[in-house]
Amino acid sequence: MKIKSLIASLILATTTTYASTGEEQHFPGVFVGATTIDSETDFSYGIEYEYKFSKTWGAGFVYEKTDNAHHGAGVDVALAAVYLHPWKELRIGAGFGKEKVGSYTDHHHHHHSSHKEDVIRTSISYDFHVGGFGVAPTLALDFVDGETATVIGVAFIKAF
Question: What is the rounded CA–CA span in Å between residue 95 and residue 121?
């Protein structure tokens, strides 16, 4: 898939590291927010991690859960991402991974087995620093099987 090649190329192109600058490189975080799809909004939570290769580029992963999505079956999203930091603490991301939907029975009493689908995510956030921590309001769009889910929330980050 083209997005996988793009992410790999961007990661390989970022050869400048922070190792000699003493800057923080690791950015683990906890995310809380909400996911909206098909006019239904549910609580979402998860973890994220970014390793910054330079002041401009980073890469990492995201794992999120939305327990009540898809008729209460729940959705897990796991993806790898590349991040661009074009200005101050602004972060623009693009990622690719899998969405797992749990099994459920719909309102017509049809059983649906759990399944996985590809997910492409685009995101934007801005990191505000408060007492050694980052607070990052985040907006993401997940593209899954012809549908778009909107994820909005806040990540709490501790850099080291």
Answer: 5
Contacts 24+ apart (CB under 8 A), 16-25: 16/53, 16/54, 17/53, 17/54, 18/52, 18/53, 18/54, 18/55, 23/52, 23/55, 24/52, 24/159, 24/160, 25/51, 25/52, 25/160
- Beta strand 104-105 with 111-112 is antiparallel
Asked if residues 8 and 14 have their Cβ atoms less than 8 Å apart, the reply is no
Question: Any idea which residue has 């330079």 for tokens?
Answer: 54
Instruction: Read off the tokens for 127.
Output: 């990191």
SS3 of 23, please? coil
| pLDDT per position as a tens digit, 139-152 | 999 999 999 999 99
Q: At 37, which amino acid appears?
A: I
This model's pTM is above 0.70: yes
Say whether 28 sits in a helix, a strand or coil.
strand
